[in-house]
Design a protein that fits this description.
Quinone Oxidoreductase, Chain A, domain 1; about 25% strand; 15 strands; 9 helices; about 325 residues; alpha/beta
Length: about 325
C-alpha cells in the first residue's frame, strides 16, 4: 500500500510517500480501505517530534473509507460498509496511520456511516467534532442559558465547536478571531464575532447587555495570553475547557483565582483519554455524524488534495494559511 511516512522528526518537506505492507486487524480492531484522511495541526506536531512516537510513523488520526476486514471478536462492521474512524487512542499503544491506503482502528473508535454519506465531508468533522462535542456536552455541560466563547473560531476545531454550540441551543455563541480576514461572511453560527485584540471590552458589552457578569463557557484550543484573558472573563461558576495549545505557550493560571472567583478549569486531550472512555467517545462520534448527515449542523465541504501533497498541507497549517479543514484523497 502507499503511505505517507515520517522517517525522523523534521520539517514539512520531510514527509515522503512510500510503499509499506498493509496492516491487518488484531482482536477488537478493524482494517479500513481509506478513502480520505483528515489533516490537522496536531499532525504537524507529531511530524516535528513534539510527542515521542515510534519511528517510522504514519500520521493521520481520522479517516473515512470502507471496512476491509474485522478482527477477532468484532461484530457490526461488515466488509465494504462505509465507516469513519479515529486513530488517536494512543493509550492503547502506537496508533495513527490515516495517511495510508489501509489503516487499522479499534472498533470502539469507529462508526458505520450512512450509505449515502459524503466521505470527504464526514472525514473533515471526526476529530474536531468529537472533541467539540465532548468539551461542550460532557465537560462544560452547556445549557440553553449559557453564553459560550470559542477561541480560535476561524480554525477547524473552533468553527465546528461553534456550530455544535449553536445546535445545543445556547443563549449566545461568541467567536474570537485573530483578524478580520478570518471572520466568515454573514456570521454563520456566531451570534457575535470578536477580534482577539478587542476581547475584554466587547465581551463586557455583550454580557452586560444580557445582564450577566461574564461568559459561562470558554472553549480554548489556543493557549497563550488569550487563555488567561478569556479566563478573566468567566462568570461565577463559569467553565473554561482547554482542548489544545496552538500558540505553543502555556501560561500559569492561579489556583486561588479559580477558588476565589468560583470558576472551573477543565481539560480534554482526546488522544490521551479515548481508550479509557470508549463509550463516551463512541457516543460523541455517532452524535456528530448524525447531526451533520441530517443537516442539523451544516458542516462546509473541506479542501481536498491528493495524498502526495500532504507536505504542502502541513506547511500551510504551520504558516496559518490553510483553510479551516483539508482532507487527503487517498484512493
Amino acid at each position: 500500500m502507499r503511505a505517507v511516512v515520517v522517517e525522523k522528526p523534521g520539517p514539512a518537506d520531510s514527509l515522503s510517500v512510500t510503499e509499506k505492507p498493509a496492516p491487518a486487524p488484531g482482536p477488537g480492531e478493524i482494517s479500513v480501505d481509506v478513502a480520505y484522511a483528515g489533516v490537522g495541526f496536531v499532525d504537524t506536531l507529531f511530524r516535528a517530534g513534539a510527542f515521542e512516537l515510534p519511528l517510522p510513523f504514519v500520521p493521520g488520526i481520522e479517516a473515512t473509507g470502507h471496512v476491509r476486514e474485522a478482527g477477532p471478536g468484532v461484530t457490526g462492521f461488515e466488509p465494504g460498509a462505509p465507516v469513519g474512524v479515529l486513530l488517536n487512542d494512543f493509550g492503547r499503544g502506537p496508533r495513527a496511520g490515516g495517511y495510508a491506503e489501509v489503516a487499522v482502528a479499534h472498533a470502539s473508535m469507529a462508526t458505520v456511516l450512512p450509505a449515502d454519506a459524503d466521505l470527504a465531508r464526514m472525514c473533515a468533522l471526526l476529530i474536531n467534532g468529537v472533541t467539540g462535542w465532548l468539551a461542550l456536552h460532557d465537560l462544560a455541560r452547556v445549557t440553553d442559558r449559557d453564553t459560550v466563547l470559542v477561541l480560535g473560531a476561524g480554525g477547524g476545531l473552533g468553527s465546528i465547536t461553534g456550530r455544535l454550540a449553536a445546535a445545543h441551543g445556547v443563549r449566545r455563541v461568541v467567536g474570537v478571531f485573530g483578524s478580520e480576514a478570518r471572520k466568515p461572511a454573514g456570521g454563520g453560527e456566531w451570534t457575535d464575532m470578536v477580534l482577539a485584540a478587542d476581547l475584554a471590552s466587547v465581551v463586557a458589552e455583550i454580557t452586560g447587555a444580557d445582564g450577566g457578569g461574564g461568559v459561562d463557557v470558554v472553549i480554548d484550543p489556543v493557549g497563550g495570553d488569550l487563555r488567561t484573558r478569556a479566563f478573566d472573563l468567566l462568570a461565577p461558576f463559569g467553565r473554561q475547557v482547554v482542548v489544545g495549545n496552538a500558540s505553543g505557550q502555556d501560561p500559569a493560571l492561579s489556583g486561588d483565582a479559580v477558588w476565589l472567583h468560583s470558576r472551573q478549569l477543565l481539560g480534554l486531550s482526546l488522544g490521551g483519554v479515548a481508550h479509557a472512555v470508549p463509550e463516551q467517545v463512541g457516543a460523541a462520534l455517532s452524535a456528530v455524524v448524525d447531526l451533520v448527515h441530517r443537516g442539523v449542523v451544516r458542516e462546509p465541504a473541506p479542501a481536498v488534495l491528493p495524498l502526495d501533497r500532504a507536505a504542502e498541507v502541513h506547511a500551510a497549517l504551520e504558516n496559518r494559511t490553510a483553510p479551516a479543514k483539508t482532507v487527503l484523497a487517498v484512493r
